[in-house]
Protein backbone atom coordinates (compact mmCIF):
# COMPACT_ATOMS: atom_id res chain seq x y z
CA UNK A 1 0.00 0.00 0.00
CA UNK A 2 1.38 3.39 -0.91
CA UNK A 3 2.00 5.37 2.26
CA UNK A 4 0.99 8.66 0.60
CA UNK A 5 -2.57 7.36 0.19
CA UNK A 6 -2.91 6.81 3.93
CA UNK A 7 -4.05 9.23 6.63
CA UNK A 8 -3.25 8.64 10.30
CA UNK A 9 -4.83 9.20 13.70
CA UNK A 10 -2.84 10.20 16.76
CA UNK A 11 -4.02 6.85 18.20
CA UNK A 12 -1.87 5.05 15.57
CA UNK A 13 -4.57 3.85 13.21
CA UNK A 14 -4.35 4.42 9.47
CA UNK A 15 -7.17 4.80 6.96
CA UNK A 16 -7.00 4.36 3.21
CA UNK A 17 -9.89 6.18 1.52
CA UNK A 18 -11.38 5.07 -1.78
CA UNK A 19 -14.38 7.22 -2.64
CA UNK A 20 -16.72 7.19 0.38
CA UNK A 21 -15.21 3.98 1.80
CA UNK A 22 -12.13 3.54 3.92
CA UNK A 23 -10.12 0.59 5.17
CA UNK A 24 -8.67 0.98 8.66
CA UNK A 25 -5.69 -0.73 10.28
CA UNK A 26 -2.91 -0.09 12.77
CA UNK A 27 0.39 1.55 11.92
CA UNK A 28 3.77 -0.12 11.81
CA UNK A 29 4.74 1.93 14.86
CA UNK A 30 1.77 0.56 16.83
CA UNK A 31 2.58 -2.99 15.74
CA UNK A 32 6.20 -2.59 16.86
CA UNK A 33 5.04 -1.34 20.27
CA UNK A 34 2.62 -4.25 20.65
CA UNK A 35 4.94 -7.04 19.58
CA UNK A 36 3.49 -10.40 18.52
CA UNK A 37 -0.26 -10.00 17.94
CA UNK A 38 -2.24 -13.02 19.18
CA UNK A 39 -5.88 -11.86 19.05
CA UNK A 40 -7.98 -9.23 17.27
CA UNK A 41 -11.55 -8.35 18.30
CA UNK A 42 -13.57 -6.53 15.63
CA UNK A 43 -17.17 -5.24 15.51
CA UNK A 44 -20.09 -6.67 13.60
CA UNK A 45 -20.87 -5.42 10.10
CA UNK A 46 -23.49 -2.69 10.31
CA UNK A 47 -22.24 -1.11 13.54
CA UNK A 48 -21.94 2.68 13.45
CA UNK A 49 -19.05 4.50 15.12
CA UNK A 50 -18.32 8.16 15.76
CA UNK A 51 -14.87 9.57 15.09
CA UNK A 52 -12.60 8.56 17.97
CA UNK A 53 -14.89 5.80 19.27
CA UNK A 54 -13.47 2.43 20.25
CA UNK A 55 -14.33 -0.17 17.59
CA UNK A 56 -12.36 -3.17 18.84
CA UNK A 57 -9.19 -4.34 20.51
CA UNK A 58 -5.92 -5.96 19.63
CA UNK A 59 -4.02 -8.26 21.97
CA UNK A 60 -0.35 -9.09 21.87
CA UNK A 61 1.95 -11.07 24.13
CA UNK A 62 2.76 -7.71 25.79
CA UNK A 63 -0.58 -5.92 26.15
CA UNK A 64 -4.18 -5.37 25.05
CA UNK A 65 -4.84 -2.12 23.19
CA UNK A 66 -8.10 -0.52 22.15
CA UNK A 67 -8.72 0.34 18.49
CA UNK A 68 -10.25 3.71 17.66
CA UNK A 69 -12.15 4.79 14.56
CA UNK A 70 -10.27 7.66 12.83
CA UNK A 71 -13.51 8.87 11.19
CA UNK A 72 -17.25 8.36 11.70
CA UNK A 73 -19.00 5.69 9.69
CA UNK A 74 -20.76 2.37 9.38
CA UNK A 75 -18.84 -0.91 9.23
CA UNK A 76 -19.19 -2.47 5.78
CA UNK A 77 -16.75 -5.39 6.25
CA UNK A 78 -14.28 -6.91 8.66
CA UNK A 79 -11.09 -8.68 7.66
CA UNK A 80 -11.79 -12.29 8.64
CA UNK A 81 -8.24 -13.26 7.63
CA UNK A 82 -6.83 -11.09 10.43
CA UNK A 83 -9.34 -12.51 12.93
CA UNK A 84 -8.29 -16.04 11.94
CA UNK A 85 -4.57 -15.21 11.66
CA UNK A 86 -3.78 -12.22 13.92
CA UNK A 87 -0.07 -12.51 13.13
CA UNK A 88 -0.83 -11.04 9.67
CA UNK A 89 -0.72 -7.67 11.46
CA UNK A 90 2.91 -8.37 12.40
CA UNK A 91 3.87 -9.39 8.87
CA UNK A 92 2.52 -6.23 7.17
CA UNK A 93 0.44 -3.88 9.36
CA UNK A 94 -0.31 -1.54 6.45
CA UNK A 95 -1.73 -4.37 4.33
CA UNK A 96 -3.59 -6.16 7.14
CA UNK A 97 -6.64 -3.89 7.26
CA UNK A 98 -9.10 -4.54 10.09
CA UNK A 99 -12.42 -2.97 9.08
CA UNK A 100 -13.88 -1.19 6.08
CA UNK A 101 -16.30 1.64 6.73
CA UNK A 102 -18.53 3.96 4.77
CA UNK A 103 -17.66 7.50 5.83
CA UNK A 104 -20.42 9.50 7.45
CA UNK A 105 -18.58 12.83 7.03
CA UNK A 106 -15.62 12.95 4.60
CA UNK A 107 -14.68 16.37 6.07
CA UNK A 108 -13.37 14.53 9.15
CA UNK A 109 -10.38 13.46 7.05
CA UNK A 110 -8.97 16.98 7.47
CA UNK A 111 -8.36 16.28 11.18
CA UNK A 112 -6.06 13.33 10.37
CA UNK A 113 -2.31 13.39 9.80
CA UNK A 114 -0.51 12.83 6.51
CA UNK A 115 2.54 10.54 6.45
CA UNK A 116 5.02 13.35 7.12
CA UNK A 117 3.01 14.62 10.11
CA UNK A 118 2.64 11.09 11.47
CA UNK A 119 6.38 10.43 11.14
CA UNK A 120 7.00 13.58 13.21
CA UNK A 121 4.52 12.37 15.85
CA UNK A 122 6.30 9.05 16.39
CA UNK A 123 9.87 10.35 16.40
Q: What can you see in these coordinates?
A:
- There is one protein chain.
- With 123 residues, the chain is of the alpha+beta class.
- Helix content is 19%, strand content 37%.
- It is built from four helices and nine strands.
- It has a six-stranded antiparallel sheet.
- Strand 1 (6-8) and strand 2 form a beta hairpin.
List keywords for this structure.
123 residues; 6-stranded antiparallel beta sheet; single chain; alpha+beta; 9 strands; globular; OB fold (Dihydrolipoamide Acetyltransferase, E2P)
- Mean pLDDT comes to 93
The CATH homologous superfamily is named RNA polymerase II/Efflux pump adaptor protein, barrel-sandwich hybrid domain
Q: How many helices in DSSP terms?
A: 4
Helix content: 10-25%
Shape: globular
CATH topology: OB fold (Dihydrolipoamide Acetyltransferase, E2P)
Number of domains: 1
Strands side by side in the biggest sheet: 1-2-3-9-8-5
Just give the CATH class: Mainly Beta
How many E-type strands? 9
Percent of residues in beta strands? 35-45%
Secondary structure layout:
Blueprint: E1 6-8, E2 13-18, E3 21-26, H1 28-34, E4 37-41, E5 48-49, E6 54-60, E7 64-68, E8 73-78, H2 80-84, H3 88-91, E9 99-103, H4 115-121
Antiparallel strand pairs: 1-2, 2-3, 3-9, 4-6, 5-8, 6-7, 8-9
What's this entry about, in short?
Helix content is 19%, strand content 37%. The protein has 123 residues and is of the alpha+beta class.
Amino acid sequence: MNQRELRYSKDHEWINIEGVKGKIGITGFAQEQLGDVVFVELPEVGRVFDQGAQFGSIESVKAVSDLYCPVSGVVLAINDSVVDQPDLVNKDPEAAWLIEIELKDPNEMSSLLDSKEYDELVK
